[in-house]
Design a protein that fits this description.
By secondary structure, this protein is mainly beta. The protein is 8% helix and 17% strand. The chain has one helix at 53-58; strands at residues 41-43, 49-51, 63-64, 71-72, 75-77.
Length: 78
Amino acid sequence: KFAEDTKEHDGPAEGGEPAPIAETRGEAEACIFCKSAPIEFETNSCGHAAACKKCAMKTATGGKCRKCGQMYAGWRHI
C-alpha cells in the first residue's frame, strides 16, 4: 500500500516492504560482447576470459581484446 502523496513508482509507503531485487549475472562471469551468456572462451594472446561460445565464433578470426586492447588471433576454450 502506498501513502496518499506518493505514486506507484515512488516506492513503498513507510513501513512497506521493498520489492525484491532481481538476480543479475555478475560482470566477471558474463560475456563482454552480449553481456548475458556465461564466459567459455579466452583470447589466445593475452588470456583474458571474455566470450561465450556464440560471440567467440562470431569473432573467431581475431580482433582487439576489449579488456586490455592487445590484438588476438583467436580464442581458447576454458
